[in-house]
From TrEMBL:
PANTHER family: GUANYLATE CYCLASE SOLUBLE SUBUNIT BETA-2, SOLUBLE GUANYLATE CYCLASE 89DA-RELATED. One of its GO terms (cellular component) is guanylate cyclase complex, soluble. This is guanylate cyclase. It comes from Photinus pyralis. Transmembrane segments: none annotated.
Length: 309
């Protein structure tokens, strides 16, 4: 059973908007009462008003997505955030070009508000070998969202979940097929590579940069991807984790999803086989009596034909 997900989508002086997602249904009254109790016991908010703005269900009513509106006096928090974001004693910091961030994070990706790729790091170019072909392309064409699960890979969701760890899957094999006519080809032989990191919003240019590093199981996988230990980020514990083999959980989850997809394809093929078998039976029964056809299934066809003669 998966744990529920709760996050805020908007904060103002009169309260905030909250999204609640869960695989279980029927807990809306409980969540409303829990929020009121938390506000009263921990924050001294006695006049908290909780309203249900939207109530959406997923496939077969298994997933619940509820948008709550929490009305309360939130002026103190807004003022504190304004002071924090506009300090009086500290001057404005010097601007940093985006390409320097991509140098620090060679696997980084820049996305604009239309979900198109604005820039990629050096190592993304190395493993895909199609730098200019990726620029300006929709990110959904080459990257799949692995985490957080159950969330649409859209601009608003990225802004709302900036404090959540993201995992994107780069489909190298698909890029290889699309640009097979080019003289250059991807260096790595693996079909996919996982990128794990955090989304950072750049308000000046209305873009998001994905500061990430690849999820590598061990040193052997580096060579399979056409990478070296020095290609990993210079900061953090990425190199140590790759040498110790601590990042296998995400890989196992990806393999499990692939196996689950193959199992679903096999189930669909069995359903298709049953449908074709049913159609063949209907065709057979339209040509000869059903009793004769059933006897032919269990007896020798030659003997059956002699009996009919």
């Amino acid at each position: 059973m998966k744990s529920p997900s709760i996050y805020l989508t908007g904060i103002d002086e009169n309260g905030c908007d909250m999204i609640y997602r869960s695989d279980r249904t029927g807990f809306i009254p409980y969540i409303k009462g829990l929020l009121k109790r938390i506000g009263q016991d921990f924050y001294g908010i006695t006049s908290l008003e909780v309203k249900v703005m939207e109530n959406q269900f997923g496939s077969r009513h298994r997933n619940t997505g509820v948008k709550f509106r929490l009305n309360f006096n939130n002026e103190d928090y807004i003022q504190a955030e304004h002071i924090r974001s506009h300090p009086h004693k500290v001057g404005r910091l010097r601007s940093v070009p985006c390409f320097q961030l991509l140098e620090l994070f060679p696997f980084g990706i820049m996305i604009n508000n239309t979900m198109d790729i604005m820039g990629v790091g050096e190592k993304i170019v190395q493993i895909s070998a199609v730098e200019y072909s990726l620029l300006g392309q929709p990110i959904h064409d080459h990257f799949a969202l692995r985490r957080p699960k159950g969330v649409v890979f859209a601009w608003n969701n990225i802004l709302n979940l900036r404090n959540v760890m993201f995992e994107l899957e780069l489909n190298i094999e698909k890029i290889k097929e699309e640009y097979d006519d080019n003289e250059t080809s991807p260096k790595g032989e693996g079909k996919t590579i996982l990128l794990k990191g955090q989304m950072k919003h750049i308000e000046d240019i209305q873009a998001v940069i994905f500061l990430c590093s690849p999820v590598i199981n061990d040193i052997d996988e580096l060579t399979d991807r056409g990478l070296y230990l020095s290609d990993l980020n210079q900061h953090g514990l990425g190199k140590e984790m790759a040498m110790a083999g601590w990042q296998h959980n995400s890989k196992l989850e990806m393999l499990f999803d692939e196996a689950e997809g193959k199992s679903q394809d096999l189930e669909n093929n069995y359903d298709l086989l049953d449908s074709w078998k049913k159609r063949s039976d209907e065709l057979l029964y339209s040509m000869i009596p059903k009793s004769v056809a059933d006897r032919m299934r269990g007896e020798d066809c030659i003997e059956m034909c002699e009996v009919r003669d």
